[in-house]
Design goal:
Elements lengths: L1 H22 L21 E15 L16 E13 L3 E14 L3 E16 L3 E10 L2 E12 L2 E12 L10 E13 L2 E12 L6 E20 L3 E19 L7 E4 L2 E10 L4 E12 L1 E4 L11 E13 L1
Antiparallel strand pairs: 1-2, 1-16, 2-3, 3-4, 4-5, 5-6, 6-7, 7-8, 8-9, 9-10, 10-11, 11-13, 12-15, 13-14, 14-16
C-alpha cells in the first residue's frame, strides 16, 4: 500500500507540473534589430541638356555706331553655336555656349568673322538665384555678377560687371562698366510686362576729342504666349526703346551731335517637341530703327530709318 501511495503521489506531482506549464504561458525573448540610418547620396555633376543652333544676323546698315556706314552683305553674319547644360545636386546649374561666325555674301563668299564663348553658373534658392557669367570675344572679355527672382506675379533679373577691351587705344576702345537687366516685370494671366535697361560707362578715356563716356537705354517689353498645342508652342514679344541718352567728353565744352535710336522690336518664338526629350526651336527678330539727332546744329540731319533682322533655328535634347 505504501508503494501504491508513493506512486500515486508521484503521478499527481507530475500532472500538476504539466498542467502548470499549459496554463502559464512561456515568456518569449524579444530581439530588437536596429536599422542603420540611410546615407544620402553624394551630389554628382550631370549633363542636363545638349544642343546646337544656327543664327543669321543681317543689317540694312551698320547701326552699332548710331547708323553710320553701309552693310553690303546680302546674307549677313552666319553663326554656328553649341550649348551644354550641367547641374550639380539640386541647387547648382551651369551652361556653356560656344559659337563661331562667318560673314556671308553671294558675291563675296564666306569669310571668318567673330566668335563668342559664354560660361554661366547659377545657385538657386527658394525664390531667387545668384550667378556669374564670363563672356569672351575677340575684342573683349566681360565678367558679370547676376541675380534673378520670382515672387508670385513679380519677377526680374539684373546683370552687372566689367568689360575689358582687348584693343585699348586712344579712342573708342576703352574698358567699361556694363549692366543690363529687367529689374521689374509683372505677369497678369498669360501676359508679362517689364522694364529693361542697358548701361555703359567707359573708363579711362584717352582723349577729349568727342569721345563717348556714358550710354543708357530704356525699353518696355511685352511678352505673351500665342499658341500652345500638344507639340507646338508659339510666343511673341514686343519691345519699344522709348529713351536713349549718350554723354561725350570734349575739352572745349562743345556739344557732340549724336543719333538717338527709338527702335521698335518684334520677336516670334516657336518650339516643337519631337519626343519627350528632343525638341526643335527657332525665332525671328525684326528691329525698326528710327533715329533723331541730339545736341546737333542745323547742319546735322536725322539718319534715315534702317532695320536689323535676326533668325535662328536649333535643336535641344534634355536628359
Amino acid at each position: 500500500m505504501k508503494k501504491l501511495a508513493l506512486l500515486l503521489g508521484a503521478l499527481s506531482l507530475v500532472s500538476s507540473v504539466a498542467y502548470a506549464k499549459e496554463v502559464v504561458p512561456a515568456v518569449e525573448e524579444v530581439v530588437v534589430v536596429e536599422e542603420a540610418a540611410p546615407v544620402a547620396a553624394a551630389p554628382m555633376l550631370r549633363v542636363t541638356n545638349v544642343g546646337q543652333y544656327i543664327e543669321i544676323d543681317n543689317y540694312s546698315r551698320h547701326t552699332g555706331d548710331g547708323g553710320a556706314g553701309t552693310d553690303n552683305l546680302d546674307i549677313g553674319n552666319v553663326m554656328l553655336g553649341h550649348n551644354v547644360g550641367l547641374a550639380y545636386g539640386d541647387d547648382w546649374t551651369f551652361n556653356l555656349m560656344a559659337r563661331k561666325g562667318w560673314n556671308t555674301d553671294t558675291d563675296d563668299g564666306i569669310h571668318s568673322e567673330g566668335h563668342r564663348i559664354d560660361i554661366d553658373a547659377w545657385r538657386s534658392f527658394d525664390n531667387f538665384s545668384v550667378g556669374a557669367r564670363w563672356r569672351q570675344e575677340a575684342g573683349m572679355d566681360r565678367y558679370l555678377g547676376r541675380v534673378k527672382y520670382n515672387y508670385g506675379m513679380f519677377s526680374g533679373w539684373v546683370d552687372a560687371g566689367y568689360q575689358f577691351e582687348n584693343k585699348n587705344d586712344s579712342k573708342g576702345n576703352n574698358d567699361l562698366i556694363y549692366s543690363e537687366g529687367m529689374p521689374v516685370a509683372v505677369t497678369y494671366g498669360p501676359v508679362t510686362v517689364g522694364y529693361y535697361y542697358e548701361y555703359k560707362d567707359w573708363n579711362g578715356t584717352g582723349s577729349d576729342n568727342g569721345e563717348q563716356t556714358d550710354e543708357l537705354t530704356h525699353q518696355v517689353r511685352l511678352m505673351a504666349p500665342l499658341y500652345t498645342g500638344e507639340k507646338l508652342s508659339l510666343s511673341g514679344e514686343y519691345r519699344y526703346q522709348f529713351a536713349q541718352d549718350k554723354e561725350f567728353e570734349n575739352k572745349n565744352g562743345a556739344k557732340v551731335a549724336w543719333q538717338e535710336n527709338n527702335r521698335h522690336i518684334a520677336i516670334l518664338n516657336a518650339n516643337y517637341a519631337l519626343t519627350d526629350n528632343l525638341s526643335v526651336y527657332g525665332y525671328y527678330q525684326y528691329e525698326w530703327n528710327k533715329y533723331e539727332v541730339q545736341d546737333g546744329t542745323r547742319a546735322d540731319r536725322d539718319l534715315g530709318d534702317d532695320y536689323y533682322g535676326e533668325f535662328a533655328i536649333g535643336w535641344n535634347y534634355a536628359f
